[in-house]
Specification:
The complex is a heterodimer of chains A (about 150) and B (about 650). Chain A is about 25% helix and about 30% strand. Chain A is α+β, with helices and mostly antiparallel strands and about 150 residues long. Chain A has a 5-stranded mixed barrel with strand order 2-4-5-7-6. Strand 1 of chain A pairs antiparallel with strand 1 of chain B.
Chain lengths: ~150, ~650
């Protein structure tokens, strides 16, 4: 270095150390953040057994129970029950439901579990077609309900 | 017939790639000159053969030749012509063929034009390019043959995923692929320079236009992809931290870092080993992205192949290419002599900081993208989204943007920060003022306030390098830098404004009712059924009025495609200079009311204008570099000419 300051010989070493420190810092930060921010996937039975914190974003996947879809008076909020034949979780969703969202078919809801036990979803993913299925639901296509249950055992 | 021709061309291209690798490799060990002379022509012909093969596939799709399995699986005779042609790369095999075609053409072009580097380095570079290409040829021919026949021919095709039936399909994948694969040239340059121990300014200057070009295409591809997702998905968002988006962002981050470190190497002969490393990392990220997207381990509209064999094949290629390059780096990095030194407060110092922050951001994105896959392998199903990526990314991006305001004002080698202080007072105070104003107003989150403040400061600071210069004498690369940095400020402003000021309405209304969203009044006239070439739809007839302005017709649709049967929602947009109205039609409730979802998104188009400005900056810099290279070559030829004449 011509301008003084750092010992010239060590500049490369210092640069390497600074870069390494930043990258390791990033990795540690990422690991820490993932522990608190990754959104876990729950089946209804898991959610009933060990409910997530109310302020924690999670995903809930299962079957939409037959006859459970109810539309609120505002016309845009729906309530339904997601079940895996072991537990039933009531879900509330305000928004435009995906086209293939229907009773007796699989759904993944993204949102938070309220303290009163209702799952408030910000987003619903339904089975679209063979080429575009939410990852968690690949296992839930045919005879979904029984498979869902079998998977938890 | 045409299918056979395409397949034959592909096999020949693969054979030529093998020859190119062999000839290049042998002549590196001091083989005979005839062998070395083969490398460049072979590279060019290999590219043309790959192009011929790709043209054959496009022709088959255009003709809807249902005796070809790929066409039967992914096309349909009733599809509009544009989607028949674009459908050629709207599937796994076709998109991989596009990949090797671009790779072959880029290698061929490189072989024809690049004459500045020592010949051994060029031979090593072209051999490395052939090595990488060969892996992808093998992948296509052995496990993803696009020309596989179907006997008997199918009576009708199965159609193209409706989400892909959009003009965006014609441009988005080719643009991104040129970006991804363009980085393979930087990778090969890095390997070539390591093999022949020729890491220096000449290497950086030869590599830079390629990196710039690839980076411009990546920037455009990401910008367009974001806008496409924004209007096609109907969710009102423009970036979802979907693994597929991350797969395009990661090479972009690496290429951005590479671009800047290559500038340092070219101008100042510093950051040698680091630049080589980034050259390897950038294309590695392209391959990681391809693996994530194409292997079928992720499920999205981009994942065509749910086939474990293909996934393992790409993973194998990935491990071989990246592993070999990193091994070579580890063996040779010690012998890359240290470059010129510089003070911490200097242009180089700022660029090093920028590089480290970009790389750390890349790490954050990579870890967040891979984590769900690793967790799933351990039996845990998780997804990672904005609550992780936004704050973690900001930790590194915000300091980088602050330094971005300062760096271009610093001198090379050594400078005093105090010198820039007076110039930066205006943008600094502006940023503080904007930040304080919005923080005081209290309705905006931390990150949006930070974003708005930084955007205001950066917009002014990015123009400062022009201060005190005669505009006519400013060289194109400097214009490029200023435009690109200003684009960063514009995009950042759009992002921050979108998350700070968006208003959303979700309502159920009858025909004849009016909904207010922000300054807009939207009137639902009626909902009518209409039919398109291969879909039917319910279309809302609405007029939208901004404050007391004139009414504008908008028509959001809920479409149902029949081949394959699937619904999509077509949003309607009204763009003004100060934002966008975004309307989506939902379903009809039992009582006859229609669901409408409306957003007023102030300044949201700035995100994409900013992206385009960034790309434009790259184009200006590229033109500037290429023109000065050409001028130098012409001047050199003239001198050589004159000497020859005098000698005679």
């Amino acid at each position: 270095m011509s301008g003084g300051g750092l010992k010239a010989k060590h500049q490369r070493l210092v640069l390497v150390l600074v870069a390494l420190a930043a990258l390791i810092g990033a990795a540690l930060l990422a690991t820490w953040a993932l522990r608190s921010q990754a959104s876990f996937f729950y089946l209804p039975a898991d959610m009933a057994a060990s409910p997530p914190d109310p302020d924690r974003a999670v995903r809930l996947g299962g079957m939409v129970e037959a006859g459970s879809i109810r539309r609120a008076a505002d016309g845009v909020t729906i309530q339904f029950v997601v079940s895996d034949n072991k537990a039933r979780i009531p879900v509330m969703f305000s928004g435009i439901a995906p086209d293939l969202f229907q009773e007796n078919s699989g759904v993944v809801a993204e949102g938070k579990l309220r303290a009163d036990g209702t799952f408030v979803a910000d987003n619903l993913l339904a089975k679209h077609d063979e080429k575009y299925v939410p990852r968690e639901m690949k296992d839930m296509t045919a005879d979904q309900a029984r498979q869902t249950v079998a998977e938890t055992q | 017939m045409i299918a056979n021709l395409g397949l034959a061309a592909l096999w020949m291209a693969a054979a030529l790639a093998a020859l190119q690798l062999l000839a290049g490799g042998l002549s590196l060990r001091g083989g005979n000159p005839a062998l070395a002379g083969l490398v460049r022509p072979v590279a060019a012909v290999q590219g043309l053969l790959a192009l011929l093969s790709f043209a054959a596939l496009v022709y088959l799709f255009w003709q809807t030749d249902l005796s070809v399995k790929l066409v039967a699986m992914n096309s349909h005779s009733a599809k509009p012509l544009l989607y028949k042609i674009a459908g050629a790369w709207g599937n796994h095999e076709g998109s991989m063929l596009l990949w090797v075609t671009i790779m072959g053409l880029a290698g061929g072009f490189l072989a024809l034009v690049e004459r500045r580097l020592p010949e051994p380095t060029m031979l090593a570079t072209l051999a490395a390019q052939a090595f990488v290409s060969l892996g992808f040829y093998a992948f296509l021919l052995l496990s993803s043959n696009p020309f596989e026949r179907l006997t008997p021919a199918a009576p009708e095709g199965q159609g193209l995923n409706p989400l892909l039936q959009d003009p965006g399909l014609a441009f988005h994948p080719p643009t991104l692929y040129i970006g991804y694969v363009g980085l393979s040239i930087a990778f090969s340059f890095a390997v070539g320079a390591l093999l022949t121990r020729q890491v220096g300014p000449a290497f950086a200057k030869a590599m830079r236009p390629w990196v710039l070009g690839a980076w411009v295409f990546l920037t455009i591809g990401i910008t367009a992809g974001s806008y496409w997702a924004y209007y096609e998905l109907g969710w009102g968002g423009w970036w979802f931290w979907d693994p597929v988006e991350n797969a395009s962002l990661m090479p972009w981050l690496a290429a951005t870092a590479l671009l800047h470190s290559a500038s340092v190497l070219a101008a100042r002969n510093a950051l040698r080993a680091w630049t080589v490393m980034l050259g390897v990392v950038a294309f590695s990220m392209s391959m990681v992205g391809t693996f994530l997207v194409r292997s079928g381990i992720l499920t999205s509209v981009h994942a065509f192949a749910v086939d474990p064999e293909r996934g393992s094949f790409i993973l194998g290629l990935l491990v071989i290419n990246i592993g070999a390059a990193l091994l070579l780096f580890a063996l040779r990095a010690g012998s890359v002599t240290e470059g010129e030194r510089f003070a911490l407060a200097s242009r180089e110092g700022a660029l090093v900081f920028n590089n480290v922050m970009l790389t750390a951001t890349l790490g954050i994105v990579l870890i967040g993208t891979l984590y769900p896959l690793v967790a799933e392998a351990m039996g845990l199903k998780v997804s990672v989204g904005p609550p992780y990526f936004n704050p973690m990314g900001a930790v590194f991006v915000v300091p980088m943007l602050v330094v971005l305001a300062v760096g271009p004002l610093l001198r090379w080698r050594s400078d005093k920060l105090g010198r820039t202080g007076r110039m930066l007072a205006v943008p600094g105070l502006l940023a503080l003022g904007v930040g304080a104003w919005f923080a005081g107003s209290g309705f905006v989150g931390v990150l949006p306030v930070l974003g708005l403040a930084l955007a205001a400061g950066l917009a002014v600071a990015s123009l400062l390098p022009l201060a005190g210069r005669k505009l006519k004498t400013i060289k194109l690369p400097l214009w490029g830098m200023v435009v690109a940095h200003f684009g960063v400020a514009v995009a950042l402003f759009g992002m921050a404004a979108d998350s700070a000021f968006t208003t959303e309405r979700l309502v159920a209304v009858r025909a004849g009712q009016t909904v207010e969203v922000g300054p807009w009044k939207v009137f639902l006239r009626d909902v009518v059924p209409i039919a398109g070439p291969n879909w039917t739809a319910l279309q809302a007839d609405m007029d939208a009025r901004y404050k007391d302005g004139p009414a504008r017709d908008i028509h959001p649709q809920a479409r149902s495609f029949w081949a394959p049967p699937q619904g999509t929602s077509e949003s309607a947009l009204v763009t003004r200079w100060n934002g966008q109205l975004y309307a989506v039609l939902g379903e009809q409730a039992e009582d006859g009311r229609w669901q409408l979802r409306l957003w007023w998104k102030p300044f949201v188009p700035m995100i994409w204008y900013g992206g385009l400005l960034i790309a434009l900056g790259g184009v200006l810099a590229l033109i500037g570099r290429v023109m000065s290279d050409l001028r130098r070559i012409l001047a050199r030829d003239k001198i050589a000419d004159r000497r020859e004449r005098q000698g005679r």
